[in-house]
């Protein structure tokens, strides 16, 4: 039977935002986690040069895989081989590859609720069974070793994300290690979505590979590297799984865009520039967190990384989608409704992305304050 997938409601909000913009309204796009910083200059310059010089056939960049392996050594002190990287069109196909090449229809895959919308939907599309574990503000909306020890029967795998979407919260190193131990003991394979690594405000995120070499890692150039539209990412697979994952990739997707692979390699010459982006997000985060109490939004887990604030609006509504639409219509601020991330409690939550410019954040706060002050309480 065909799987029915929920749409990503933030896309509908975004469409409405663009329609309002076309009518001349001033819109602040806080609905998607899309870096406002743009690709590094070195990547853009390389792309220009390559366009004039190369024929752009199907291609897998060996130098890029080498550079990625070196990056894991530099950033995490973890040794991986260049051959373990399978280059993809972003983390999204890398997740499809990880799941489809290693698991079967009917397999049970655990994840935190709230969590990134595509986890649930990708599993459904592959006829696997999402096992959603409710994670509240008390645990930073994150999975714990204790929660994974308690699921009966043990799932085939778990998807973890640290920092996470929609909350930006981290799983601290000690807990990550405990998760790895529980999963090893129970035979639960770990898929770690590390797409927000490099964007942390408290402590740098450690890769799961430091604790579990059998884990599968998905990541991409979309966030830290600020190259979302270039569609470039990777699956980092354990050595004995590489051939199978590569065969799946060859059949399902062929290769990642050649131009992006060239540009992605050049992006490694701009790590200082990329590391500097965090200063923009840190300031945006500071401004937003400081403004939240005045908006009456007090139930949040402050984001340790990424660029999201996930806040409870339970005192104002039990329909986050209608709330986001009204907010957009009245203020021009686009946001994402919690139902995209949590089919049960998401009706009480809203997600703001602060990946926009600091000037936009300041303007958003100016508009949000009177609007929230005017909202009637539900009870
Ligand atoms: C947690 C998470 N994983 C994966 C993705 C997919 O990213 P991409 O396919 O652009 O690499 C996103 C996009 O926002 C995300 O938030």
Automatic annotation (TrEMBL):
PANTHER family: AMINOTRANSFERASE, ASPARTATE AMINOTRANSFERASE
GO molecular function: transaminase activity
Protein name as annotated: Aminotransferase
SUPFAM superfamilies membership: PLP-dependent transferases (SSF53383)
Pfam families xrefs: Aminotran_1_2
Assigned keywords, A-Z: Aminotransferase, Pyridoxal phosphate, Transferase
Family according to the record: Belongs to the class-I pyridoxal-phosphate-dependent aminotransferase family.
Enzyme class: transferase
Cofactor annotation: pyridoxal 5'-phosphate
EC number(s) reported in the record: 2.6.1.-
Organism: Duganella levis
Domain Aminotransferase class I/classII large: 48-368
InterPro entries: Aminotransferase_I/II_large, AspAT/PAT-like, NHTrfase_class1_PyrdxlP-BS, PyrdxlP-dep_Trfase, PyrdxlP-dep_Trfase_major
């Amino acid at each position: 039977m065909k799987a029915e997938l929920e749409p990503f409601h933030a896309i509908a909000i975004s469409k409405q935002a663009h329609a309002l913009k076309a009518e001349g309204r001033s819109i602040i796009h806080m609905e998607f986690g899309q870096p406002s910083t743009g690709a590094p200059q070195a990547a853009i310059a390389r792309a220009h040069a390559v366009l004039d010089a190369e024929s752009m056939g199907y291609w897998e960049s060996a130098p890029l895989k080498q550079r990625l392996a070196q990056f894991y050594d530099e950033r995490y002190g973890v040794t991986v081989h260049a051959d373990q990287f399978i280059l993809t069109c972003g983390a999204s196909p890398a997740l499809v590859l990880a799941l489809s090449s290693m698991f079967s229809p009917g397999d049970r895959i655990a994840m935190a609720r709230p969590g990134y919308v595509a986890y649930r939907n990708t599993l459904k599309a592959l006829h696997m069974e999402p096992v959603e574990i409710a994670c509240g503000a008390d645990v930073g909306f994150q999975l714990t070793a204790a929660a994974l020890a308690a699921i009966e029967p043990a799932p085939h795998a778990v998807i973890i994300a640290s920092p996470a979407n929609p909350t930006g919260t981290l799983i601290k190193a000690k807990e990550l290690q405990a998760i790895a131990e529980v999963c090893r003991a129970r035979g639960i394979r770990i898929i770690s979505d590390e797409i927000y690594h490099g964007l942390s405000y408290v402590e740098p995120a450690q890769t799961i590979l430091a604790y579990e070499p059998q884990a599968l890692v998905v990541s991409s150039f979309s966030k830290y590297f600020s190259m979302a539209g270039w569609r470039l990412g990777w699956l980092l697979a354990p050595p004995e799984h590489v051939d199978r994952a590569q065969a799946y990739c060859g059949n399902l997707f062929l290769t990642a865009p050649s131009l992006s692979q060239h540009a992605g390699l050049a992006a490694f010459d701009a790590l200082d520039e990329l590391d500097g982006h965090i200063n923009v997000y840190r300031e945006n985060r500071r401004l937003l967190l400081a403004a939240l109490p005045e908006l009456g939004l007090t139930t949040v887990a402050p984001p340790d990384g990424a660029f999201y604030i996930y806040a409870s609006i339970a005192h104002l509504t039990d329909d986050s989608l209608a709330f986001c639409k009204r907010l957009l219509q009245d203020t021009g601020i686009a946001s994402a409704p919690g139902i995209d991330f949590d089919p049960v409690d998401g009706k009480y939550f809203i997600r703001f992305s602060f990946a926009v410019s600091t000037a936009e954040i300041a303007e958003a706060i100016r508009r949000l304050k009177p609007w929230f002050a005017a909202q009637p309480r539900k009870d």
